[in-house]
Structures are given as structure tokens and as C-alpha cells.
Design goal:
This protein is an alpha/beta fold. It contains eleven helices and eight strands. Helix 3 crosses helix 9, helix 5 packs across helix 11 and helix 6 packs across helix 7.
């Protein structure tokens, strides 16, 4: 584990950096949408990521930038050729992949000895839920033909995409060996009454801005379509699911709903609820974040054939 900061410092950092501004008000969300369209930020990986080798595909049928993050040669094993993880980054459908995402991606590749596929999907206002879901389905489908095991993971808005993609793949007869979701966005109607209970304790996300971003992301689809809000979809037949969420996250109530629906549908669910923790806590440099990162890595370990 690298350096850690006190958990009490995180809300102060969020406020000081303005990380919560796109979410706490409708005006803040609209301003951020315009800012990101006019001044997009780089999406490439950091210059150095320990224990991995990063390759950008020269071209991909998706038309998107796509990276393959391989475990370094000294940690390479046959398992790395037999299995793959597809990781969808979060950011409210408007923020680009960040250093924290690249760090957890590198850790997954390094500690599970698998290749991690990282699609850089189009963000708002250019992207929308259906386009990103369907293109990601095709990207994953292409991976299924080669490795024996495919798992998908995502955080926050990336968790929404990951679960919607898993449902589409299930409908197409493609089974994923695992679905790992960190603080996923699940119901873009924002109508769960328990959200109002959590909101005063969440220093990061907010319903007003969340609704603006959700409305833009749904495109021409109804907000309750599972391609937009996967909580409204059928959970039966999905692969084993791991859910991580903090109690100080407005997405927490919907995560509870997902757990209930998935278990009722016969899906195996591993549940990690971190008391007092914020949104995407496993990406934060805290002791709780380190434990969450360990849980993510454990959920994505390949399984030896026959087990």
C-alpha cells in the first residue's frame, strides 16, 4: 500500500478542488458539461504504472481509443492469456478517465495476472447510453472468442455501463464469469426515497446535478430502459456479482435494491458495504480505500479450469 491520507481530509479536498460542483446544483452540472466539451482533458495513462505494460491499439472496430494493460513479463502466467477483464471508468458520464482509475486498473492487471481492456468511450455531450452500451457489447464479444474467461468491472457511471453491457451480453447468450461494481449508478430516475436520507451526509454527489447528467446521458431512450438504468432490468442469468458501496454515498440505496433484485433472481452476490465511506471509496488513498481495492482484486481473480 502506498501513502494514505486521513479519511476526514477527503471531504475537504473535494470541496477545495470543486469536485462536487458538477453534482450539487443543476447549474453546476450544465456549466461542467460545457466546460468539458470546450476543454477536453487527456485520457492517456500516467507515464509510469508499476508492474504493467500498457499498449494502445492502433485501431479498434469501435472507433474508440482502447488500451490493453498487461501484467509485466515477470508476473506473467498462462492465466493472463486465458482470461481478461474489461474495465469501464466512472466520472458522471462527463469526466474523463483519471489517474485513480489507471492505478486500480494497473493493480488488477498486476495482482490478478490478467490483461485489462480499457475502452475510452465518448462522454457527454457527444456520447449517450445506448451508443456506449452497444459498442462496448461488441468490444467484449470480440474478447470472448479468445480467452476462456471474461469479467467486467466498473465504478460509478462506469458501473452503470458495465451492468447494462452484462445484461445485453446475457441476452445474446454470452456468459461473463464475473461482474464487479464499485458504487454503481443504477437508477437514473433518482426517485429512491432513501436517497434523501443519505444526501445530507454525502459531500460529493448530489441529486440536482445527477439528474441533469442523467437526462443528457439517456439520449432518446426512456430513463427506465435498462440500457440507461440497469436496476430496471432482469437480473436472472447474470454471472457472479460483487458490489462495493459506502454508506455516505447517495448511490447506496439503489445498490441495496440491486443486491435484493439480483439475489431474488438467483444471482450470486458478494456484498461489501463500507461504513462511513464516500463514493468510490476504493479509489481513494485511505485505509478503507486499500481494503476496498483488495476486495476488487479478489473478485476479479481468474478461476483455474475445473474449479
Amino acid at each position: 500500500m502506498g501513502f494514505t491520507v486521513p479519511e476526514s481530509a477527503i471531504p475537504l479536498v473535494l470541496k477545495a478542488t470543486g469536485a462536487n460542483k458538477p453534482f450539487v446544483t443543476e447549474a453546476g452540472a450544465r456549466k461542467h458539461l460545457k466546460k468539458r466539451y470546450l476543454r477536453p482533458i487527456p485520457f492517456g495513462p500516467p507515464a509510469r504504472l508499476r508492474g504493467v505494460r500498457v499498449e494502445r491499439r492502433l485501431s479498434d472496430p469501435s472507433g474508440w481509443p482502447v488500451y490493453d494493460v498487461h501484467p509485466a513479463k515477470k508476473t506473467f502466467s498462462r492465466r493472463a492469456t486465458d482470461s481478461v477483464v474489461v474495465y469501464l471508468h466512472g466520472g458522471g458520464w462527463v469526466n474523463e478517465i483519471a489517474s485513480q482509475h489507471w492505478q486500480i486498473i494497473a493493480r488488477i492487471a498486476r495482482d490478478t495476472r490478467q490483461r485489462v481492456v480499457v475502452p475510452i468511450y465518448p462522454l457527454l455531450p457527444l456520447g449517450n447510453a445506448r451508443e456506449v452500451c452497444e459498442t462496448t457489447v461488441n468490444l467484449v464479444r470480440a474478447e470472448v472468442e479468445a480467452p476462456k474467461q471474461v469479467r467486467i468491472a466498473g465504478d460509478s457511471s462506469g458501473g452503470q455501463i458495465a451492468l447494462s453491457v452484462a445484461m445485453k451480453l446475457r441476452d445474446a447468450g454470452i456468459d461473463l464469469q464475473g461482474i464487479t461494481l464499485l458504487a454503481p449508478a443504477l437508477d437514473l430516475t433518482w426517485t429512491n426515497p432513501e436517497i434523501d436520507i443519505v444526501q445530507p451526509n454525502d459531500p460529493w454527489l448530489g441529486v440536482p446535478g445527477g439528474r441533469v447528467l442523467s437526462e443528457a446521458w439517456r439520449g432518446s431512450d426512456d430513463v427506465t430502459d435498462p440500457v440507461v438504468s440497469p436496476l430496471f432490468g432482469d437480473m436472472s442469468g447474470l454471472g457472479p456479482m460483487t458490489i462495493l458501496v459506502g454508506t455516505r454515498d447517495v448511490l447506496n440505496p439503489d445498490a441495496h435494491q440491486l443486491r435484493r433484485k439480483a439475489e431474488e433472481a438467483g444471482v450470486s452476490v458478494t456484498w461489501h458495504e463500507a461504513q462511513g465511506q464516500l463514493h468510490v471509496f476504493a479509489l481513494l488513498p485511505t485505509k478503507a480505500g486499500e481494503l476496498g481495492a483488495q476486495q476488487i482484486v479478489a473478485s476479479l481473480q481468474p478461476v483455474a479450469p475445473g474449479k
